[in-house]
Write a structure and sequence with these properties.
alpha/beta, 10 helices, Rossmann fold, 258 residues
Length: 258
């Protein structure tokens, strides 16, 4: 069985590992790092670039793909919409794998918002100290729109493309923390103390994304937390969505595709 796994996340890598023993897996990612992880997990083919709906349609047809597993990040809205539309137009099965949400407790230090632009504006209003951005380089531009690069630090994957983008947007080298996580609460605390952080910006990317340990570390230090909540993708209504590997395997068994 030829299965397309839209990956680039830790979840996607685990799915590839589970399925590649019995199936031919074609994985898509948007980074070289994600490509390396997918290959190491057992994917027989890896495409490392952003794919439009047309690209996906052509790939599904050319490779005779029978199932599309969308394991992209919860914030990758356009990727999920493209995956859904491509599967629908191609007449193949679609399954969305989305890591479970976590409950964000009520705390006067936690400020929830629904976009990075709003998070950036809010940070500029409630904070005078250093900001640690823990939500990826793809959202850094919005944060720097309303906050001085002299006060913004970012933790990113130690990938050349990520570092170059940080520099292009105006961050100094010493404000770029290249590390591959996730990290423990104590490690996060040490990092926040080392850089004199007063506020962190993160997103609700689930336990797999390290959200819990980031928030716990910040709160124990008395730091403000701006949390960008997950987007709601209305197109997923009435679509098969699973949150755990066992659920996915059971779904495949029912489809007779595992």
């Amino acid at each position: 069985m030829i299965i397309l796994v839209m990956s680039g996340t830790r979840d996607g890598t685990e799915i590839i590992t589970k399925l590649s023993k019995k199936n031919y897996i074609i994985a898509t990612t948007t980074t070289n790092h994600g490509s390396q992880l997918s290959s190491a997990a057992g994917a027989q083919e890896v495409i490392s670039q952003r794919l439009s709906k047309e690209d996906l349609l052509n790939l599904i047809k050319d490779k005779n793909i029978k199932l599309l597993i969308d394991a992209t990040h919860p914030f990758a809205v356009e990727a999920t919409k493209n995956a859904l539309n491509s599967a629908k137009h191609s007449g193949i099965k679609y399954i969305r794998f989305e890591r479970p949400s976590i409950k964000i407790k009520k705390d006067p230090l936690i400020f929830k918002t629904d976009s990075f632009e709003k998070a950036s504006i809010l940070a500029s209003k409630i904070n005078k100290g250093n900001i640690l951005h823990l939500a990826g380089v793809s959202n850094l531009k919005e944060i720097l729109t309303y906050n001085s690069p002299d006060k913004v630090y970012i933790r990113v994957l130690p990938a050349l493309d990520s570092v170059k983008e940080c520099l292009r947007l105006g961050l100094k080298q010493e404000h770029i923390i290249g590390m591959q996580g996730t990290f423990s609460k104590n490690f996060n605390k040490a990092l926040m103390q080392e850089y004199g952080v007063a506020l962190i910006i993160t997103k609700e990317s689930g336990e797999t994304g390290g959200t819990i340990t980031k928030v716990e570390a910040a709160l124990e230090l008395g730091l403000k937390v701006i949390m960008v909540m997950r987007p709601h993708i209305k197109e997923l209504l009435n679509q098969p969505v699973v949150h755990h590997i066992d659920e996915l395997l059971n779904s495949l068994e029912k489809l007779k595709l595992s």
